[in-house]
Design brief:
Blueprint (H helix, E strand, L loop, with lengths): L3 H10 L5 E4 L1 H14 L3 E6 L6 H9 L3 E4 L2 H9 L7 E3 L6 H9 L4 E4 L2 H10 L4 E5 L7 E3 L9 H13 L3 E6 L4 E3 L3 H18 L7 E3 L15 H16 L5 E4 L3 H4 L3 E11 L8 E5 L18 E3 L7 E7 L8 E11 L7 E5 L20 E4 L1
Parallel strand pairs: 1-18, 2-3, 2-11, 3-4, 5-6, 6-8, 8-10, 10-11, 13-15
Antiparallel strand pairs: 1-12, 7-9, 12-13, 12-17, 14-17, 15-16
Helix pairs in contact: 2-3, 2-9, 5-6, 6-7, 7-8, 8-9
Pathway: Amine and polyamine biosynthesis; putrescine biosynthesis via L-ornithine pathway; putrescine from L-ornithine: step 1/1
Keywords: Lyase, Pyridoxal phosphate
Protein name: ornithine decarboxylase
Length: 377
């Protein structure tokens, strides 16, 4: 929901054009909820979700660690006050010179998912800790992850064995159950895979220590989602199921769950039209679309909650689209979005739950539209 602080900011500042306004108080509450839900897990905020300096500094001051995908994100986390020991280079696809630069900056924790990546880390970050990402199916996630990252559990055994043989610290395994994951049992399946890797290597004398349980923690869009407490209880139960009383160190990497509900996009209706006289659906064009920060509407995966100044009036389904001269810039068409019939050109509307993956997905200047402006309050 748009907090009163966000509504007051938009009303008084009257920012021109589309923008995302994020309330740090909500981020603070989310961090505390994760701390309470999983008190024995270290929190590594996924910087890619929203790298605003104000967000990173708040989380660094609260004791958060950081999951980074590039040298630039590592430098952002360091600038925010995090020490290198609180930063993970979590991308499994890294140039060797970037590994070397991260090592130079003090980073000693790296993700891998194949032997070639292990060899790069061994050459450029000798002695570092590595964890191998295990492939998961992502079933139950609204934004499932592809097969781009991770390897099957049996291969992860070989990857970590190779890391050990090259003098690296074979530290553990990681997985990601898919973004906006609402099926709590997804962690059960993934932790079962992790257990297999741990046990297989333990029989060879290689003792893994850590399970990185990734992200996937959802934010509320149109449908209610389980609270952090429910995730914490379920995950702890699955940890006990698979690891008994000898629990590994654990890491979680919330991104969307940390900042998603803290942000709201303010946008304007640019045009309302039909494609024929007997068309039963209006086309409503906004001044923001897929290339302006709403890329997660791809395949209509994420359905944001939209608030209009005419809520309460009669609703009718419409096709929602962005402003660019690109036919792909359509947000909701397969499943039309119900909006008030009284909505008119020039109306300002709010798209809620847009604190994550909007400013970072916004194009630099596609069609000459400026990147999505961000205000952190």
């Amino acid at each position: 929901m748009a907090t009163q602080r966000i509504l007051d900011f938009i009303a008084t500042r009257r920012p021109d054009g589309p923008c995302m306004v994020l309330d740090l108080d909500v981020v603070r509450e989310n961090y505390r909820a994760f701390e309470k839900a999983l008190p024995d897990s270290r929190i590594f905020y996924a910087v890619k979700a929203n790298p605003a300096p104000e967000v990173l500094k708040l989380l660094a001051d609260m004791g958060s660690s950081f999951d980074t995908a590039s040298v630039a994100e590592i430098e952002m986390a360091l600038d925010a006050g995090a020490t290198p020991s609180r930063i993970s280079f979590g991308n499994t696809i890294k140039k060797e010179r970037d590994i070397a630069r991260a090592y130079q900056l003090g980073i000693r924790l790296f993700a891998v998912d194949c032997e070639a990546e292990v060899e790069k880390v061994a050459r450029s970050a000798p002695g570092s800790r590595v964890f191998c990402r295990v492939l998961t199916d992502g079933e139950g996630a609204e934004w499932p992850l592809s097969r781009k990252f991770g390897c099957v559990p049996s291969m992860a055994v070989g990857v970590l064995r190779h890391a050990y043989s090259l003098g690296l610290d074979a530290y553990g395994v990681s997985f990601h159950v898919g973004s906006q994951q609402t099926d709590l049992s997804a962690w059960d399946r993934a932790l079962g895979d992790a257990e297999m890797v741990f046990k297989t290597l333990a029989d060879e004398g290689i003792v893994l220590k850590m399970v990185n349980m990734g992200g996937g923690f959802p934010t509320r869009y149109l449908k209610d989602v389980p609270q952090a407490e429910a995730y914490g209880q379920a995950i702890f139960g699955y940890l006990r199921k698979h690891f008994g009383n000898t629990l590994p160190e654990t890491i979680i990497e919330p991104g969307r769950g940390m900042v998603g509900n803290a942000g709201v996009v303010k946008t304007e209706v640019v045009l309302i039209s039909k494609k024929s006289e007997d068309d039963d659906k209006r086309w409503i064009y906004l001044d923001i679309g897929k290339f302006g920060g709403l890329a997660e509407t791809m395949d209509e995966a994420i359905r944001y909650k939209i608030v209009t100044p005419r809520d309460g009036d009669e609703l009718a389904p419409c096709v929602l689209a962005g402003p660019t001269c690109d036919s792909a810039d359509v947000l909701y068409e397969k499943t039309p979005y119900p909006l008030p019939l009284s909505l008119t050109i020039g109306d300002e509307i709010l798209i809620e739950g847009t604190g994550a993956y909007t400013t970072t997905y916004s194009a630099v200047a596609f069609n000459g539209f400026e990147p999505l402006r961000s205000y952190v309050i």
